[in-house]
Amino acid sequence: MKKNIITSAILFSVFSGSALAAKTEITVASFPNFNQVAELAVPMFEAKYPDIKVKVVTLAYGDHHNAMTTALATGANLPDVMGIEYGYVGQFIEKGGLEDLNKYGAGEFTEQLVPFSVSQATNSKGVLSAVPADIGPGATFYRKDVMDAAGVTEEELLKDWDSFIQAGIKVKEKTGNYLIANAVDIKDIYIRSNLKDGEGLYFDKDHNILVNTPRFKEAFRLAKQAREAGIDAEIGAWSNEWTESLRRGTVSVQMMGAWLGGHLQDWIAPEAEGLWRTSQLPNGAMASWGGSFYAIPNKAKNKDAAWTFMKFMATNKEIQLAGFKDINAFPVLQSTHSDQFFNEKIAYLGGQQARLSWKESAEHIPAITVDRYDEVARQVVNDALEKVLEKDADIDQVLADAAKQIERRARRR
Fold first, then answer.
1. Quick one: what percent of the chain has pLDDT higher than 90?
2. Among 38, 64, 139, 250, which one is least packed by beta carbons within 10 Å?
């Protein structure tokens, strides 16, 4: 019903009259649920630009990014506009197969966008190779009924990481529920937290590897402490077990992007209205978790029309808000953040003005850099953590080995 209302509102705003015959057709390659915002926008865009027709092509998340990787490498089957999810953006913008958007005048409007997202779309040579379309401020979602049953307050849960783990122990003892799905979640949030502008997650701006550092060692220590305390269910995100645990509340906390609230409400646990709450991350951490981007391949056929579409998607307030309302895609356009929609209470989250909390996080997230080997490093680091959690391996040793492995794999590529 909500989607129909939003779609109707957008269609209603399209001016009437016969459109001119389209002169240029562009293809926008996307993935769920990012494609939904583009599909919502097409009628309004084509009304404003009758000489451009838009075709949105959608593949499953992994299939899409694999197809785009192959297309960039071979120059075949390239779309005019390429959707990219945050986890792949570093790899894509560093490979050199995307247009330098500065030559299209991107600098004229990037100041309108959330700063850290623009940094994520800028490669190590200072070239803006993608335009952010939405962002993912990190947030904590928790079951208030479970916390109340365990006698755990929000302050106790989020004060700092050690307090977070102690709260998990209390939850397990009093209710039998797990605090988190997997100890990996703590590592994932900790390594992203409170970085400084210009720093990277796994690499610095000069491509030096950062995994064998105190930041990663502390993240591993906390994850191991959580596993030893028995407060994680040892299940992976997006698995059937993960979804069911959130639906039933047997996992009572999930730290992810603010967009998770929409997933909980729409399909994971719609019957749990009023039971979930959201807040900032533990220890006052401010971190980005997700986000989506658009880019133009160097060998795209209709670059000017593609640029017109991308600029429209990033700077049109109505479309930015429609994405937020429809799929909980937090808007990158800063002028939307003063909209009344942010002040509305969310019944699903117990009447919280949750969007204001997410907005605060977005305002303080550092503008970190991305690297083409971020995905390689992520895989290696996760394998290293598994050795610590499953085999009690030495943290210092596995991180030293991980740094060497990342260097070898990067050199081979």
1. 85
2. 250
